[in-house]
Design a protein that fits this description.
This protein is of the alpha/beta class. Helices cover 44% and strands 13% of the residues. A nine-stranded mixed beta sheet has the order 1-2-6-5-4-3-7-8-9, sandwiched between helices. The protein has a three-stranded antiparallel beta sheet with strand order 10-12-11. Helix 1 (3-10) crosses helix 5, helix 9 (212-222) packs across helix 10 and helix 14 (320-332) crosses helix 16 (348-360).
Length: 375
Amino acid sequence: MSLEAWVKLNAAPDIGPRRFHRLLRAYGSPEAALAAPARAWSQVVERLSPERCAESQSQARAFDAARELERCAKAGVRMASFRDPDYPAALLSTYDPPPLLYWRGEIVPEDRRAVALVGTRQPTEYGARQAALLAEGLAARGVTVVSGLARGIDTCSHLATLEAGGRTLAVLGTGLGMVYPEENTPLARRIAQGGGAVLSQYHLDAQPERFRFPLRNATISGLSLGVVVVEGEEDSGSLITADHALEQGREVFAIPGPLDSPMSAGPLKLIQQGGAKLVRTVDDILVELASPRPAMQALPDGASAEAGVQAAMPRTDLKGDEAVLHALLQEQGRSGFEALAARSRLAAGPLAATLTLLELKGAVRQLPGKQFEAL
């Protein structure tokens, strides 16, 4: 696979994740899509004129992918397509995941247990305090906090997680060659240097244009088991993230606030319409993510709350690839990723995604050294 072709097609104007995946299904690879007659693209992608398709393809072909890869190597930026084993497995369970991800820092298996905290860029004192309390509580239980590095609730959430010694993922609406807003550059550096990772689905020099942020919001929710809307007006952008979460089958939560505060309008609307579950404490989130389940039992001394949540996840009937992998692990005991790939004949991306789903269902657990065993 030529990573340069992925970089070029990912940089094509007007070709977001959905159109990228349509082209990939039609032509089989980014190389073939870039080599295809430009006007033929208009028969594959929706609502894009032949002239615009030709211009988009021309700019993609001209994009200097070799220089982009060189810059990534010098800046310590890693890159993975959705077909690579390093790609975050949680995103693979969403429709049209970002074809390519860039990140600085480290993504670890524990990041599969993640919750997103989102909200207004102009929080009240109450909202900022609630975001910090939730972030601290999630970090204390080993849950990764995901947010968008924006001003306000996002910043409060990232900072509180770091101060609590937890992990946080910051998803940008720009390329990693810049941080928006600029004042959060030190925060982004701190996250990447030991507190998680800063990610983007865009090429390094992508600017903070409005159309990029809804796609960024879908990535935030896709990386998470659930999304918490802390504060926001009735038309807040954080409600877009909540909508994406619902479409992706994620849980949505909202923090109730004062009835006379404009910043409470968004969360209260979600709760009133039944789109979000009311949250008072971090335990409300963890219990909901573990249901449907039997009644919670007291944890043994020394056990973590995270382990209690994982143990409470229901055992469900497994089908398709899930059943095949679980049976293989039951048969051969502990097994590595490559051995499972060979035995199951699954590609790395689908295999990683299926293992993640099995972990979340409490049917499989991952051990050090990328080893897995059935439960």
